[in-house]
């Protein structure tokens, strides 16, 4: 256990408490006496043991070894095999909540072929050095990557030519021409499609450049992906005015699409280009409506998730991108976050960890380690929170300040995590044991949730 970090939490609920050991994935409800007993005994049988309680804890595997969770450290093995190209800040939509103010920035930021080629060559070389893992190439951006279409096509062709096994993926708004749909369906292994649910909500929150509706075009792309059997997930953003229609939107997606997962996030901007925490009232409303949508997804055998609440994950960091990917901006920076699209981003300074110079990828390892260290420092503010081992201090962009500056999102994360634990316990007769054998579990930071379909939101563990 890391010094000063609890292994057991008592979460007040309905006059009792949920007794929770995160790194054993074990939770059950207890009264005050049981809470005191378990907290006082810790991970060793009590000197004056209650035989009934001790038998229950043994059967639950409460004292078995927990998942290890070593802190991230850079070493000679840091050779990313995932390339992420943040293509442009231009866009064919004008989403009301866009963090990048895409399409409205006075200076366009478009990636050059030299930058794209350098990053592809770098991850392919690292993949060959590793001798096993095939490289991946993901298109993302502060805008819509397909707007920079000629470069996207050239990068796909080049990556496939130098390494045919390269896995191609993209985060996109789905506003494609028919020719683009055919190209995506023929060449992409995975797509994360941003769509905000029912047509009325989609059209209001994600209008086209001239204010026209966008829902019909996105649905054409969804049908094309379904027909071509391309793997894809849907990423929904929820605003206060649309939160009551969240479950309806998820129900429609489960009924009418083959999307394997739906990522649902509350807005993290107050307006276009302005980051902001959500207020506590919206946090509570989002939590309740999310759990409705989560149950809809479970009934339809689909994964519905919110990045902050992931009790199945034990990880040292919220986001895997700094450790796994070479994320390149349009202007040739190497960054730790998919939202830092160029020097025009408000986050560019603190998230920059290298450059592409003269066709070479040059990480500044000291800057990268400093970034990781800062995330751990922020995480230590959260040791008393039962989400500590899961949200890991939360996303660096969602929580740019201290813990008190993130009250709304933290509230939503705690609400949803507790609600999930209660649901897991109810489904399993009152005792949730989600981890039977820690020795057989994936290494820390490489949990099964790392392989869950996602929007590649920073390659978050959940």
Strand content: 15-25%
Look at the helices and sheets and give the structural class. alpha/beta
Strand neighbour order, sheet with most strands: 12-9-8-7-6-5-4-13-14-15-16
In total, the number of strands is: 17
Major sheet attributes: 11 strands, mixed
Which shape, going by the Cα principal axes? globular
- The rounded Rg comes to 22 Å
Whole-number total of structural domains: 1
Classified by CATH, the class is Alpha Beta
Distance linking N and C termini: 22 Å
Low-confidence stretches: 439-462
CATH superfamily: Aldolase class I
Going by CATH, the architecture would be Alpha-Beta Barrel
How many helices in DSSP terms? 14
The CATH topology label is TIM Barrel
Mean pLDDT across all residues, rounded?
Answer: 90
The helicity comes to: 25-40%
Sum this structure up briefly:
Helices cover 35% and strands 17% of the residues. The chain has helices at residues 32-41, 51-60, 113-130, 149-162, 178-187, 199-205, 215-228, 246-256, 280-299, 321-324, 348-351, 365-379, 388-391, 407-427, and strands spanning 9-13, 16-21, 26-30, 82-86, 136-140, 167-172, 190-194, 231-238, 261-266, 269-271, 274-275, 303-305, 325-328, 333-335, 352-357, 360-363, 431-433.
Summary keywords:
TIM Barrel, four-stranded antiparallel β-sheet, 14 helices, 17 strands, globular, disordered C terminus
Notes on the protein architecture:
With 462 residues, the chain is α/β, with parallel strands linked by helices. It has a single domain (72-420, 446-462), classed as TIM Barrel (Alpha-Beta Barrel). It has 14 helices and 17 strands. It has helices spanning 32-41, 51-60, 113-130, 149-162, 178-187, 199-205, 215-228, 246-256, 280-299, 321-324, 348-351, 365-379, 388-391, 407-427, and strands at residues 9-13, 16-21, 26-30, 82-86, 136-140, 167-172, 190-194, 231-238, 261-266, 269-271, 274-275, 303-305, 325-328, 333-335, 352-357, 360-363, 431-433. The chain has an 11-stranded mixed β-sheet. β6, α5 (178-187) and β7 (190-194) form a beta-alpha-beta unit. α3 (113-130) packs parallel to α4 (149-162), α5 (178-187) packs parallel to α7 (215-228) and α8 packs parallel to α9 (280-299). It starts with 8 loop residues before the first strand and ends in a 29-residue tail after the last strand. The model is unreliable at 439-462 (pLDDT under 50).
């Amino acid at each position: 256990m890391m010094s000063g970090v609890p292994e057991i939490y008592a979460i007040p609920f309905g006059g009792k408490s949920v007794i929770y050991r995160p790194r054993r994935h074990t939770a059950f409800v207890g009264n005050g006496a049981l809470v005191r007993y378990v907290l006082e005994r810790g991970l060793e049988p009590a000197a004056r043991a209650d035989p009934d309680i001790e038998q229950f804890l043994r059967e639950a595997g409460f004292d078995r070894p927990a998942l290890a969770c070593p802190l991230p450290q850079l070493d000679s093995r840091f050779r990313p095999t995932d390339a992420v190209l943040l293509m442009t800040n231009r866009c064919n939509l004008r989403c009301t909540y866009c963090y990048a103010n895409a399409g409205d920035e006075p200076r366009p930021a478009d990636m050059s072929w030299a930058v794209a080629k350098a990053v592809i060559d770098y991850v392919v070389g690292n993949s060959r050095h590793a001798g096993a893992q095939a490289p991946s190439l993901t298109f993302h951006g502060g805008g819509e990557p397909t707007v920079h279409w000629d470069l996207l096509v050239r990068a796909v062709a080049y990556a496939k030519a130098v390494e045919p096994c390269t896995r191609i993926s993209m985060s996109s708004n789905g506003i494609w021409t028919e020719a683009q749909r055919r190209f995506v369906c023929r060449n992409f292994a995975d797509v994360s499609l941003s769509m905000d649910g029912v047509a009325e909500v989609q059209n209001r929150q994600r209008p086209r450049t001239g204010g026209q509706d966008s829902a019909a075009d996105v649905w054409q792309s969804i049908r094309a992906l379904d027909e071509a059997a391309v793997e894809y997930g849907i990423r929904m953003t929820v605003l206060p005015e649309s939160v009551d229609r969240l479950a309806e939107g998820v129900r429609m997606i489960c009924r009418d699409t083959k999307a394997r997962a739906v990522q649902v996030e509350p807005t993290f901007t107050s307006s276009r280009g302005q980051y902001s925490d959500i207020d506590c009232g919206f946090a509570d409303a989002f939590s309740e409506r999310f759990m409705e949508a989560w149950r809809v997804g479970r009934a339809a055998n689909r994964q519905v998730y919110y990045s902050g609440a992931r009790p199945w994950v034990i990880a040292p960091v919220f986001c895997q991108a700094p450790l796994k990917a070479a994320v390149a901006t349009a202007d040739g920076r190497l960054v730790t976050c998919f939202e830092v699209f160029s020097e025009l981003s408000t986050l560019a300074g603190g998230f920059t960890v290298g450059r592409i110079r003269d066709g070479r990828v040059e990480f500044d390892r000291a800057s990268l380690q400093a970034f990781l260290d800062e995330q751990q420092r922020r995480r230590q503010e959260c040791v008393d929170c039962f989400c500590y081992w899961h949200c890991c201090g939360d996303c660096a962009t969602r929580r740019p300040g201290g813990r008190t500056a993130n009250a709304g999102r933290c509230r939503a994360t705690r609400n949803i995590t507790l609600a999930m634990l209660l649901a897991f316990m109810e489904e399993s007769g009152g005792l949730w044991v989600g981890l039977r054998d820690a020795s057989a579990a994936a290494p820390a930071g490489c949990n099964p949730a790392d392989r869950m379909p996602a929007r590649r939101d920073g390659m978050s563990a959940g």
